[in-house]
Amino acid sequence: MTNEPDRISFDDLVSAIEAKLTAAGASSAVAKVLATNCATCERDGTLSHGVFRVAGYLDSLTRGWADGAAEANIDIVGPSYIRIDGRNGFAQPALAEAQPQIDQALSDTGVAVIALRNTHHFSALWPDLESFARDGRVAMGMIASGKLAVVPEGATRPVFSTNPFGFATPVADADPIVFDFSTSSMSHGDLQLLRAEGKEVPVGTGVDATGADTTDPNAILDGGGIRPIGGHKGALLSFMIETLAAGLTGGAFTFEIDAEAPEGAHTFRTGQLFIVIDPERGGNDAYLARVRGFVDMLRDAGMDRQPGDRRYANRAEAAERGIPITDTIRSLFD
Ligand SMILES: NC(=O)c1ccc[n+]([C@@H]2O[C@H](COP(=O)([O-])OP(=O)(O)OC[C@H]3O[C@@H](n4cnc5c(N)ncnc54)[C@H](O)[C@@H]3O)[C@@H](O)[C@H]2O)c1
Ligand SMILES: O=C(O)C[C@H](O)C(=O)O
User: Which protein family is it in (predicted)?
Assistant: First the structure.
């Protein structure tokens, strides 16, 4: 790869983020996982969860709110059921630590239910889900995000977080299909980015402190709230995600953690749930080919953009030219 002057290579970006995280107290193992995750989001265009998030990680580490050197406790509570206590560390390193136990459950039973608690998740789900799919697994994940930000119709205050849900499947002779979205009209991260740019948001995105529709991100973020996707249906998805990612895992519900977090905290100690399935155990030998046929039909019907297409295109461009250097990336070198 030839790096253009206003671009940085993926490896250099990982190293720069890693250096910041270790300087703030993260162990080298944790820094590597988080930095790779963060640079992956930046490279593939998920800017709402890319380098923009490094400041929040550093804040949590330096004030001792999250433990950057935590080593997870991993309990096998059933042949397919893995419970992880992240011990106030970050979720992705805890998930990475449990990889041998996850592989064992998949090999023994074809299914792994991975319940994480006492863990901060401050990023996108798709990098971990894509990695499962590249190993031939179907995977889904969900997060109790911890920032009380979402006001469903009828509620007079925020009761949910932006509660993302992600899904990934391998596809025969193609990149995996991976999608991952907040169950709110917009992620909190995107709203913060739009606020910083002084932009407005579409009507329906959120409400101000009086409960009235607003197009001003300031009004939504400061005392108002974000609307769920699809009215009551999005609210019910959030209900399910909080119930599974917090209730089932034993992690804190968003409504509990937000009250406990220190003023100005960016990351939140909550819970996450992943379900990973070996599709070959389903009795459909040709699963991958069947999904390929399904995706081909969708493209043929006019759905020519499939989830993941843009990320893969951004990734290919970054491999060729490097990742565009933003002011936020530049600040890593200050
Ligand atoms: N850690 C957390 O607590 C937290 C909370 C909220 C969101 N997030 C993350 O924020 C990220 C962005 O969330 P978002 O709600 O802004 O998602 P988004 O709107 O950017 O994208 C949603 C998904 O839809 C796909 N997609 C977008 N347009 C498409 C189209 N026209 N056709 C087909 N597919 C299309 C994308 O590939 C993506 O997978 C996610 O990765 C999510 O995990 C994290
Ligand atoms: O920003 C947060 O606090 C939660 C999440 O990452 C989001 O962008 O919605």
Answer: Belongs to the LDH2/MDH2 oxidoreductase family.
